[in-house]
């Protein structure tokens, strides 16, 4: 199963965050991509996590300071068979930056 992270690079921090996240996720089995716009302009920068058959997630209001929590989320997401979590506390403040949870 391919796990994907897509980062909006239209917003100011998006391109830099994409490079940092790509480096941070090298050891995991994620395909990291970029897109021009994810229509999350009111909450830049925007990132999605998705995999076939799993709940997808959209986060916004992200900066480079969120990198540790994004990596923690990526690890949890890999291990969650359906993409859902019984306890989201390990991702810290990233919980408050969730824009959407889309059923798989």
Please describe the structure with a list of short key phrases separated by commas or semicolons.
104 residues; alpha+beta; Glutaredoxin; 2 helices; 5 strands
Structural overview:
The structure is a single chain. The protein is of the alpha+beta class and 104 residues long. The protein starts with a strand and ends with a strand. 23% of the residues lie in helices and 25% in strands. It is globular. The mean pLDDT is 89. The protein has one domain: Glutaredoxin, CATH 3.40.30.
Quick recap of the structure?
The protein is of the alpha+beta class.
Which fold does the CATH topology refer to? Answer: Glutaredoxin
- The average pLDDT score comes to 89
Tell me the major beta sheet.
5 strands, mixed
- Structural class call reads alpha+beta
Helix content: 10-25%
**Name of the CATH first level:** Alpha Beta
Rounded Rg: 12 Å
Terminal-residue CA separation: 13 Å
Known CATH architecture: 3-Layer(aba) Sandwich
Count the E strands: 5
Q: What's the order of the H and E elements?
A: EHEEEHE
Low-pLDDT residue spans? none
Number of domains: 1
Strand order of the largest sheet: 2-1-3-4-5
Measured by DSSP, the beta-strand proportion falls in 25-35%
Number of helices: 2
Give the overall form.
Answer: globular
List the helices and strands and how they pair.
Blueprint: E1 3-8, H1 14-24, E2 30-35, E3 47-51, E4 56-59, H2 67-79, E5 98-102
Parallel strand pairs: 1-2
Antiparallel strand pairs: 1-3, 3-4, 4-5
């Amino acid at each position: 199963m391919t796990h994907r992270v897509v980062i909006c690079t239209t917003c100011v921090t998006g391109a830099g965050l994409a490079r940092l996240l790509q480096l941070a996720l090298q050891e995991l089995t994620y395909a990291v991509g970029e897109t021009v716009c994810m229509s999350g302009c009111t909450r830049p920068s925007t990132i999605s996590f998705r995999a076939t058959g799993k709940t997808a997630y959209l986060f916004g209001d992200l900066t480079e300071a969120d990198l540790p929590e994004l990596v923690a989320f990526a690890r949890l997401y890999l291990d969650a068979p359906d993409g859902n979590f019984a306890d989201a506390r390990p991702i810290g403040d990233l919980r408050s930056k969730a824009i959407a949870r889309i059923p798989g």
